[in-house]
Specification:
Blueprint: H1 21-28, E1 32-36, E2 39-42, H2 44-63, E3 66-68, E4 74-76, H3 77-83, E5 94-97, E6 103-106, H4 111-119, E7 130-139, E8 154-164, H5 167-187, E9 193-196, E10 206-213, E11 219-223, E12 229-231, E13 249-263, H6 265-270, E14 273-275, E15 281-283, E16 285-292, H7 293-303, E17 305-306, E18 309-310, E19 321-325, H8 330-341, E20 346-349, H9 355-365, E21 369-373, H10 375-379, E22 382-387, E23 394-397
Parallel strand pairs: 3-7, 19-20, 19-21
Antiparallel strand pairs: 1-2, 4-6, 5-6, 7-8, 8-16, 9-10, 10-13, 11-12, 11-13, 13-16, 14-15, 17-18, 21-22, 22-23
Helix pairs in contact: 1-7, 2-5, 2-7
């Protein structure tokens, strides 16, 4: 992609609405645009990052048997009344009526919809277990939207649901999903801590959050050297670790994922049943597993940045290479762009602006690798290569680029 053709406008000034680093840099660098409180447009660069995150998630979920579906955003009131959550879900649903005066909610989560889907299609133990997931927009009627993409009213989410014949099988798969979550976040460049958590209005007796330590975080967690971790709301007042009695440490963190062993919470009230080998009717055991993609994207920025801008890990960088022509024969830079583009994702800064502006903007945008072509390097038959995560650049010959 040539930068002269890219729909991009960066800014040197900190936006008034940016109350953290990720909001500031994502807006300034042209990744997102604020439409309203908690509602953002993902611009071309931002959407590319989002798609990279989607692909990481899909690849890892597919490895453990996940099958992708896409459920409706518009949910009939009757389903939420079945579960008893029409008035109780927190944050509340966005609610609306159609022209026939029928009530609907905009989906904030999909336990009711997935339960309705499965009860119509599973009637025997032979159909269990299985896992369905989607990546779809969610809507939450937040009272307070802050932190750019960290707390929004409309957001892209991966929610997966597993279905099992018994609690033992649910627990086994829950552990497999836990390992997968660690792999997903590690590939994004996020070091997560798994902590015990409250199930809130989603439900279930077992729940864990996946936290990234950050001063921006709205959650307070307690951790111990033995590996124990918990959201502070679960262990209020405790000074010692409940597992080893060691001293626990408090930290601020951002929640990037949440998993739940729902058990039969929804299958009981919505009659999601199957018949076992003896023909007895039993309730399906369910698990639920969520990741907010926009929040994950913002968290990567919170963790990976410097005073100049974003430092994208290679796995989620919008482009792998930022090719920059500074001076000299532009034809040579064009040739390099054509060759690199045959194998890699390349953003080529071909614009007629000053070298200083180009380099400053490249730091702000934060693409993983930078290749600089200048009159000086071309005379030596070389280009300058610099990783965004490193301070020093190095010269490499054109035949090795």
């Amino acid at each position: 992609m040539k930068e002269s053709k890219l729909f991009l406008k960066t800014s040197k000034e900190k936006p008034k609405e940016a109350d953290n680093i990720s909001a500031e840099f994502l807006i300034r660098a042209g990744y997102i645009d604020k439409l309203a409180a908690g509602v953002y447009t993902f611009l071309p660069l931002g959407l590319r990052v989002l798609r990279k995150i989607e692909n990481i998630i899909r690849k890892e979920l597919d490895k453990i048997g996940g099958e992708e579906i896409l459920m409706p955003v518009l949910h009939p009131k009757v389903l939420w009344e079945e579960s008893g959550r029409w008035e109780k879900i927190d944050p509340p649903l966005f609610k609306l009526k159609d022209r026939h005066n029928r009530e609907y909610g905009l989906g904030s989560t999909h336990e009711e919809v997935i339960s309705d889907l499965v009860r119509k299609r599973v009637d025997s133990y032979k159909g269990l277990p299985f896992v369905l997931y989607q990546i779809q927009n969610k809507f939450r009627n937040e009272m307070r939207s802050t932190g750019g993409l960290l707390r929004t009213r409309e957001f892209l989410m991966k929610d997966a649901y597993s279905f099992h014949a018994d609690k033992k099988d649910l627990e086994s798969y829950y552990e497999e999903m836990t390992k997968t979550y660690h792999q997903i976040f590690n590939k994004m460049g996020l070091n997560v801590i798994q902590v015990e958590a409250s199930s809130g209005t989603i439900g279930g007796k077992v729940s864990h959050e996946f936290m990234v330590l950050s001063e921006t975080g709205e959650d307070n967690i307690v951790v111990c050297e033995c590996g124990f971790g918990s959201n502070e709301e679960v262990t209020i007042g405790d000074k010692n670790c409940p597992k080893c009695q060691g001293i626990i440490k408090k930290d601020k963190a951002i929640e990037v994922g949440h998993t739940f062993q729902l058990g039969d919470k929804y299958s009981k009230v919505m009659k999601v049943v199957y018949r076992d080998k003896e023909g007895k009717e039993k309730f399906v055991q369910m698990g639920c597993y969520g990741i907010g993609l926009g929040r994950a994207m913002a968290t990567v920025v919170e963790v990976h940045h410097d005073d100049k801008g974003i430092i994208w890990p290679e796995s989620v960088s919008p482009y792998l290479i930022h090719l920059i022509h500074l001076s000299g024969d532009k034809k040579k830079a064009d040739e390099i762009y054509e060759k690199l583009s045959q194998k890699y994702d390349v953003l080529y800064d071909d614009r007629d602006i000053s070298a200083g502006e180009k380099l400053a903007e490249a730091d702000l945008i934060g693409i993983a690798k930078r290749v600089v072509v200048s009159e000086k390097t071309i005379k030596e038959n070389k280009v300058e290569l610099k990783l965004r995560s490193e301070k020093e650049a190095k010269l490499i010959s054109l035949d090795k680029i």
